[in-house]
Amino acid sequence: MSPERKIQEEVDVAEQESNLNEIVLFNDDVNTFDFVIDSLIDICEHTLEQAEQCTILVHYKGKCTVKTGEYKELEPKCTALLSRGLSAEII
User: Fold this and answer.
1) What is the pLDDT of residues 39-57, one digit of tens each?
2) Mind giving me the DSSP string for 33-52?
3) What is the CATH number of the domain that holds 22?
4) Residues in domain Adaptor protein ClpS core (predicted)?
């Protein structure tokens, strides 16, 4: 593979990744661990282990990225999290 082709492929991958957004979940003093875990499993399609790890990170760090993807894919998921009373935003 030529060096030019390798560089172009790296640029193409970087451009694809730059179009991604993230749902960030924020800590609150209202919702229980179990409720947040269940919400992440239901809405973000996390495994139990992923949901538990994200919930612990949110609790101790104050926030955690819970889903990455294109905006149009994330918007309904973020709205569903918000409708459950969780604090989240798309960045």
Assistant:
1) 999 999 999 999 999 999 9
2) HHHHHHHHHHHH---HHHHH
3) 3.30.1390.10
4) 18-83
